[in-house]
Design a protein that fits this description.
Helix content: 25-40%
Distance between the termini: 42 Å
Radius of gyration: 27 Å
Strand content: 15-25%
Number of strands: 34
């Protein structure tokens, strides 16, 4: 199955290049949810970098600081007295656990498959590609008058990486295959047609991975070559690779052998067919077209460079959009871990920020795309992970704060620690669980799955809200319930004494998150008809909860007092949580806060904000909610121009995958919104997106939307009702309300007349 003809792609949903990758940021990713690979496409030496999602080192542990809770009252008192710097110093000494050195507990590369080809003198006609529609990476070129082709997939049904190399001339393929982990010293052995590799990540108690690679040549001869296998004079060669760890397998060695044995009985075509059938049931649910583009006949890196120089390319936006969906399908599947900071693709043994789970926005942003872009099942690994935080999170809630329920701070890892470690400026923020629990409610809102709400979502929402219920304390001056000590991640301010500080009581983000969590827990309790007594307590406390305020400069205050920011262009815009992802601010109900939010964004951007990829992606979503299409569109292109790598990975820098997911979520939000009790079509359409179409978008209330637009106006639209809820939809400024039946599709031209 080639998607390249005459050196050009036959499908617009293809990343393609005319040269091999020089470095990891140019390589192309494949993944099956747990097993990932990055293909470089070298013609003399091919490198395929490998990852397995549970392969973590563990050379240290985090524990709640003993006796920290005894100092909570004193820290709060100092903050209320305006002694923020003094409070922060005390918190650092008595509250914060020591931060482990970077790399101590770290997601690591599994290793590399290196393929050394026989000497090639003349190479031409080169193309390297990643087909998003078929989830296959390919390399094609002519070497010494022989056409060679590589095809790489990571199959979820077979739980293997399958790599096929073919030559147009019989007997022309000769190559040496080796597994390695060049920065360490793994156990490598050759067993017949197999190469095995075993190693523990880290030095003491890390995860041990078992990897098995099998070489299946067609014709030619297979011989041992040191720690590798050499194929000589073959027509073609199929490589099957599997890997598993002892993190979630009692006998990973047996698991990988069984997977390799089973896959080896099949042809590449059979493995590919099952892989694509499995993948397409997710990917094919949604299609998008943002306008005609002939730029697809140029390599992707050239298209990106043209955009960086100021050009526009609607086809590249479509490619980037679907790339976000491809990456989520490839890094988050049922029964896997959730996508980490790099999804599942990370190189080296000291990966950026340990490739961990940052839960003060980054993990959340990874899953903004799951519901509206019609990938709800891919949300499930996140929900399981949130549940896994409970055991440690209950201890942290009790040890540090004397609270019931469970909590977590700014970051965690595969072992689900929850404590506050490092510096208060980024870590004394116990709102991680409260924020990420919103995703459970969102899944219910989009699916209307009451069984999920009852059995999975509500127990977690209740326990998360119970922590916040206990954590709140009355402000001595206002009598309002406020959180604290806490921060506005990860910003700092100058207090009234001119001292730099970060911790506060009742920061704007905390109050918005707690309001949101209480609201969602209350609604869930009402829907399920349970827990009336606890519901009444939440309602009572919510009524006296401190609310965000607008400062004298017209901006939403980031902290409870009008402090001066140390960095006016900070990448985090935490005090706009109520704008996005939550729905506390709207033009209909709180126009003053929408205007104040605009001023926050303008100030951030004027002072260099949005300089990281994920921060820019958040800007897209903010402007979409503000219904400012041209501003949202500007930030769409700004992300490509300033924060996108040659392989279209998001650039923090370095690579972080959250910006890819945030981009796709933001573009969807520009085209369809449903957060305020009403579906709105084209709420934030830029002027230069005047023609387009999208199908398969999900809306809250369990609806699926298809539409086409021209000259900036909806021309065709349909709504499929999945649960039979009443529908309210705004089209071209007119609102239409109608009842629906489950499973029925409504052509809106017949409901509304001529649109």
């Amino acid at each position: 199955m080639s998607i390249i003809a005459n050196g050009k792609p036959t499908d617009s949903l293809t990343l393609w290049y005319k040269k091999p990758a020089k470095n990891w940021n140019e390589a192309l990713p494949v993944g099956n949810g747990s097993l990932g690979a990055m293909i470089f496409g070298g013609t003399k030496t091919e490198r395929i970098q490998l990852n397995e999602e549970t392969y973590w080192s563990r050379d240290g542990d985090y524990f709640d600081k003993p006796g920290a809770g005894r100092y909570l009252k004193k820290i709060r008192q100092l903050i209320f007295e305006g002694k923020h710097a003094e409070a922060e110093k005390l918190a650092q000494q008595k509250f914060m656990a020591k931060r482990l050195e970077t790399g101590t507990n770290c997601y690591q590369t599994l290793g590399d498959l290196f393929i050394e080809y026989a000497d090639r003198k003349h190479v031409y006609g080169y193309t390297r590609s990643l087909d998003l529609q078929g989830a296959i990476a390919e390399v094609e070129y002519i070497a010494d008058k022989v056409r060679f082709r590589e095809e790489l997939i990571s199959s979820n049904p077979d739980q293997v990486i399958a790599f096929r190399i073919t030559a147009s001339k019989p007997g022309a393929l000769s190559a040496t295959f080796k597994l390695d982990r060049t920065q360490t010293n793994p156990e490598i052995a050759v067993e017949g047609q197999d190469i095995t590799m075993k190693e523990m990540a880290g030095k003491t108690r890390g995860v041990t991975a078992h990897t098995r690679l099998r070489i299946l040549p067609t014709g030619g001869k297979l011989t041992k070559d040191g720690n590798g296998l050499k194929v000589t004079g073959a027509d073609a060669c199929l490589v099957i690779l599997a890997s598993a760890t002892d993190f979630n397998n009692e006998n990973p060695e047996s698991v990988v052998k069984e997977r390799v044995d089973n896959a080896s009985k099949k042809s590449f075509e059979d493995i590919l067919s099952a892989h694509q059938a499995d993948y397409s049931r997710y990917f094919d649910r949604l299609s998008i077209n943002l306008g005609n583009s002939q730029h697809r006949f140029f390599p992707t890196d050239q298209r990106l460079e043209a955009v960086k120089k100021g050009g526009s390319d609607p086809g590249l936006l479509e490619l980037m959009y679907q790339y976000g969906r491809y990456l989520l399908i490839s890094s988050s599947r049922e029964n896997t871990m959730p996508a980490n900071l790099q999804g599942i693709w990370a190189d080296g043994i000291r990966t950026p920020w340990n490739s961990d789970y940052h839960i003060n926005i980054n993990l959340q942003m990874n899953y903004w795309v799951a519901e509206n872009a019609n990938l709800p099942e891919l949300h499930l690994p996140l929900f399981e992970y949130i549940g896994n935080l409970r055991e440690s999170g209950r201890k942290t809630a009790k040890n540090l704060y004397g609270c019931r329920g469970f909590t977590a701070h700014h970051a965690s890892d595969i072992w689900a620690y929850t404590t506050a470690y490092g510096k208060p400026s980024y870590a004394l923020w116990p709102m991680g669980v409260a924020w990420i629990s919103r995703h459970l409610w969102e899944h219910y809102e989009f699916t209307q799955d009451e069984k999920f709400l009852r059995e999975t979502a509500y127990p977690i929402l209740r326990e998360a809200s119970l922590f916040c219920y206990d954590y709140l304390t009355k402000h001595p001056k206002t009598g309002k319930w406020v959180s604290g000590p806490s921060t506005s991640p990860e910003n700092t301010f100058f207090d009234s004494e001119g001292k730099r500080a970060s911790i506060n009581m009742g920061s704007s983000m905390d109050q918005q998150i707690i309001n949101d969590l209480f609201s969602n827990c209350i609604k869930a309790s009402e829907i399920l008809g349970i827990d009336k007594g606890y519901r009444k307590k939440l309602i009572a406390k919510k009524k006296n909860l401190a609310s965000p305020e607008i400062g004298s400069d017209g901006r939403i205050k980031e902290w409870s007092e009008e402090f001066k920011e140390v960095n006016k262009g900070h990448r985090h815009m935490s005090h706009l949580y109520g704008l996005y992802p939550a729905e506390q601010f709207s033009w209909q109900k709180t126009p003053e806060f929408m205007k104040a939010a605009e001023k926050v964004i303008q100030t951030r951007l004027q002072n260099g904000g949005g300089h990281t990829g994920w921060s820019r992606a958040w800007m897209i979503n903010f402007y979409a909610r503000l219904r400012s299409g041209d501003d949202a569109g500007f930030n769409v292109y700004a992300l490509l121009r300033k924060s996108t790598l040659p392989n279209l990975f998001d650039n923090h820098p370095p690579f972080q995958i959250d910006g890819n997911f945030g981009f796709t979520a933001g573009v969807t939000e520009m085209l369809v919104q449903s957060h305020a009790g009403q579906i709105v079509l084209l709420p934030a359409l830029p002027k230069d997106w005047e023609t387009g179409e999208i199908s398969g978008v999900k809306a809250r209330g369990a609806f699926e939307i298809n539409m086409k637009w021209d000259e900036g106006k909806v021309k065709e639209a349909s709504v499929k009702s999945l649960k039979g809820n009443d529908c309210s939809i705004s089209i071209n400024g007119k609102v239409y309300d109608f009842k629906t039946e489950a499973g029925k599709t409504y052509n809106l031209e017949t409901i509304a007349g001529q649109i």
